[in-house]
Amino acid sequence: MFSKLRTRSALHHLAIVALLAATMGARAETVEVPVGQQDQLGEIAELRGLKKDAVTTRLGEPLGIQGPVGDPAISRWEYADFYVYFEWDIVLHTVKKHRG
């Protein structure tokens, strides 16, 4: 009985050491936004929470509209440099288009 407890304890400690070793290999990536582009990103980020008519007033008519799809209804408006995602009538998120 005593040897079973030692074996369990040893396996438990080994599992913890293996878990810690695995997490030490994890790395974070730093994303840097050039200073010249920070204003553009901030401008479109300020749209979150606005209604569709406010976005149209601020940015004009979109180049294209996709959706709505699903429940809740999600739609996407396309502008020259970014997309605006709506849930029903409210801006959820803005995504800058990839240029590359």
TrEMBL record:
Superkingdom in the source lineage: Bacteria
Signal peptide extent: 1-28
Protein known as: SmpA / OmlA family protein
Protein keywords: Signal
Taxonomic placement: Bacteria, Pseudomonadati, Pseudomonadota, Gammaproteobacteria, Cellvibrionales
